[in-house]
Design a protein that fits this description.
CATH topology: TIM Barrel
Structural class: alpha/beta
Mean pLDDT: 97
Strand order of the largest sheet: 9-10-11-13-15
Low-confidence stretches: none
CATH class: Alpha Beta
Distance between the termini: 56 Å
Number of strands: 20
Strand content: 5-15%
Largest sheet: 5 strands, parallel
CATH architecture: Alpha-Beta Barrel
Number of domains: 1
Helix content: 40-55%
Length: 475
């Protein structure tokens, strides 16, 4: 066992309690806008006071709903095997969702994505050891617009066995996406017991749940499919400029989501998540790699943990336009901070340019970052005292410790061995291998990964069933 799991905190318990109580007060006094008729019916049935579409949620109802949220979620892969569990300080990563561009590795240009780009992307995600889940990461333009959300789920599950983070663009799409998920399971009950997908749902800041996102919450809850809140307060524009103010707004928006889901079906699985940002006053942009954005995320994660819910955040991404040094340090800082906070599901590996662009090169580099991060949070191991004196006593025999029994016994456990992406060669060896940059090594590795056979090939029967569902839906 490690001596201690490395951690980070930015809020004390008193301020967590203050944030939670103020968020409840906001929902009780200022209310939340609800546009979805089914949610309005639920609220009316429970006697909530409202002014038009602004509903006022009493604190006792929030507390009641919080009690029925499961404290953990286990996700299963396409074949029904247990894959990862979102609980405690378990830290997992997936590429972020719904980028509209891809950075072409061959041309170096950012362009609109096509379905073949997402096929390649999904196949590489399957090969990457430290990316635990996949996502519907790219919105591509060569399918009808009304098919874009469910078709991405079809491509993802056809090319990668890992559980998937997804979402809907149209209310009508959920039934098709549910049918795709059911094709991977024995029954509706089996899908509920072995969840394969998480559905993102994004409230509109400040304090508004739209018709589409609310319907996603309700539909997922009915099928016991996990929903993931992706609250997006923009500090200084659609949220208070103060970091603690944005954390409080995020809390209020997510609490409203908790009520919607638990009124629909008590016990439905939920993830407390978000993609906040600060507003860049100089450029008018939404920097996801800003340190203040990361601080808001950390506060949001801590509130979710305070409520004993699984947590999510968009971290480990970059605002840079290419996989350069900025992309490296922003992704590295974000991934490490997310893991130190014990965030359960972190979205962002592969993402550039304010969440608008996916890059296979960055994804491969980020996989190495996450490997290092995972080694870090394993902490330092205590193998029993004395720690060094006996080993040092043996140094005089050979004047080296490479062949020492302790070195041979522990080096594989103590050391993280990176792939060829990380350069630890001598200068001469580096020159002999072409003096390649990290980005060039990632590009070369992407071609090798695409040539590899699938880690877990899709069953022929399932592939035919998914094709059948897709062909029918496209008609």
């Amino acid at each position: 066992m490690p001596i201690i799991r490395p951690k980070i905190k930015i809020l004390d318990d008193d301020h967590k309690e203050m944030i939670l109580e103020e968020a409840k007060s906001i929902l009780e006094v200022q209310g939340v806008f609800i546009e979805n008729q089914e949610a309005l019916n639920l609220f009316d049935k429970n006697g909530l006071i409202h002014e038009g579409l602004r509903y006022f949620i009493p604190p006792d109802l929030i507390d009641k709903c919080l009690k029925t949220v499961p404290p953990e979620i286990t996700l299963f892969d396409r074949d029904g095997n247990e894959h990862i569990t979102l609980k405690d300080d378990n830290s997992h990563f997936n590429p972020g969702s719904a980028a509209i561009f891809i950075l072409d590795e061959d041309t170096g240009e950012i362009r609109e994505a096509l379905s073949n780009d997402f096929i390649r992307f999904s196949k590489i995600v399957e090969q990457l050891e430290y990316i635990a889940a996949q996502s519907t990461a790219l919105v591509y333009q060569d399918v009808p617009k009304e098919a874009q959300d469910w078709h991405r789920l079809y491509i993802a599950l056809s090319n990668c066995y890992k559980p998937v983070v997804t979402g809907t663009f149209r209310k009508e799409s959920f039934s098709i996406m549910r049918e795709i998920l059911l094709a991977c399971r024995l029954s509706e009950d089996d899908l509920a017991k072995k969840p394969l997908a998480i559905f993102d749902a994004c409230p509109s800041p400040p304090l508004k749940w739209s018709d589409l996102t609310t319907q996603s919450l309700i539909d997922a809850a009915k099928s016991m499919i996990p929903s993931e809140f992706v609250s997006m307060p923009l500090a200084g524009a659609s949220a208070p400029i103060t970091l603690i103010g944005s954390i409080t707004q995020h809390c209020a928006e997510c609490l409203a989501g908790v009520v919607i889901v638990q009124l629909t079906k008590p016990g439905a699985p939920l993830i407390w998540g978000g993609s906040p940002a600060v507003f860049d006053m100089k450029h008018g942009t939404t920097p996801m790699g800003a340190i203040e954005t990361m601080m808001i995320n950390l506060g949001d994660i801590e509130i979710g943990k305070f409520l004993k819910m699984p947590t999510h955040a968009y971290m480990g991404l970059s605002d840079s336009k290419i996989p350069d040094s900025q992309a490296g340090f922003e992704a590295g800082m974000g991934a490490l901070l997310a893991a130190l906070a014990g965030n359960n599901m972190t979205s962002g590996p592969g993402m550039l340019d304010f969440e608008s662009t996916q890059s296979i090169e960055k994804l491969i580099i980020d996989n190495e970052i996450i490997g290092m991060v995972k080694r870090f949070i394993q902490g330092i191991e205590d193998y029993g005292a004395p720690f060094a004196s006996e080993i040092l006593n043996d140094y005089g025999d050979k004047e080296e410790l490479l062949s020492h029994p302790s070195t041979l016994k522990y080096f594989r456990k103590e050391l993280f061995f990176p792939s060829s992406i990380i350069d630890r060669m001598t200068r001469d060896s580096w020159k002999d291998k072409g003096s390649k940059s990290t980005r060039k090594r990632a590009k070369d590795l992407s071609k090798k990964l695409l040539e590899k056979p699938s880690v877990k090939p899709i069953d022929d029967k399932l592939a035919k069933e998914l094709n059948k569902i897709t062909e029918k839906a496209l008609k």
